[in-house]
């Protein structure tokens, strides 16, 4: 009985996440229509074209995130902003990187690292005068390594966050793995991770 209740609760949580994400997508879509319509009414066709190009690139970037091929990670990244308004997450994947053919252990390591980085900044972020803190995460392939960078702006419990990030870096567990500590203070932070891959990821420009 307890097991069934736990399963039912998990299903309800996932359904609620889906509905929340769907609501945000609907809101964003309506907002895009309103902006385009506003530019058209003002006959600012140059701004209209620029805005459409920006929306198109964002959609293409979301497609590249989906192409990472690690389902739990993809779902986490694409639904994050709908579920966590306190931290605005921007994920940049400059080219298609398919990690699906990596061994399961390698996939789990990557997923846990990326999610761990985001949650470290989320958990140790401080109140930002009513504005969301921002985190930009870049994911791309470099030779036989996966490059992951994090750039944070806002207010931060810097020492607690750094300790959490260093703990994540220890999980790289390979002499070829690398953690580069960049600028890090109570207002901004830049970190880089290089994750060794057992086989080279499939990359498409």
TrEMBL record:
Domain of life: Bacteria
Keyword Metal-binding belongs to the record: no
Record-annotated Sporulation initiation phosphotransferase B C-terminal domain positions: 75-167
Keyword Phosphoprotein annotated: yes
Organism: Ammoniphilus oxalaticus
Keywords: Kinase, Phosphoprotein, Transferase
Alphabetized GO MF terms: phosphorelay sensor kinase activity
Stored Pfam families: SPOB_a, SPOB_ab
Protein name as it appears in the record: SpoOB alpha-helical domain-containing protein
Residue intervals of the SpoOB alpha-helical domain: 14-67
């Amino acid at each position: 009985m307890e097991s069934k209740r736990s399963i039912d609760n998990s299903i309800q949580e996932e359904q609620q996440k889906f509905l929340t994400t769907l609501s945000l997508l609907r809101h964003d879509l309506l907002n895009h229509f309103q902006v385009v319509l506003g530019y058209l009414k003002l006959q600012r066709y140059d701004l209209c074209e620029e805005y459409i190009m920006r929306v198109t690139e964002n959609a293409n970037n979301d497609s590249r995130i989906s192409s990472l091929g690690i389902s739990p990670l993809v779902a986490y990244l694409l639904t994050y902003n709908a579920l966590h308004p306190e931290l605005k997450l921007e994920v940049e994947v400059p080219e298609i990187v398919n990690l699906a053919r990596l061994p399961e252990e390698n996939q789990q390591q990557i997923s846990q690292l990326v999610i761990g980085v985001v949650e470290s900044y989320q958990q140790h972020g401080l109140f930002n005068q009513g504005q969301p803190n921002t985190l930009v995460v870049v994911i791309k392939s470099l030779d036989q390594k996966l490059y992951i960078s994090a750039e944070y702006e806002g207010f931060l419990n810097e020492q607690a966050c750094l300790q959490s990030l260093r703990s994540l870096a220890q999980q790289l567990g390979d002499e070829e793995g690398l953690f580069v500590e960049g600028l890090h203070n109570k207002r901004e932070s830049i970190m880089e991770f290089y994750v060794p891959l057992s086989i080279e990821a499939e990359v498409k420009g």
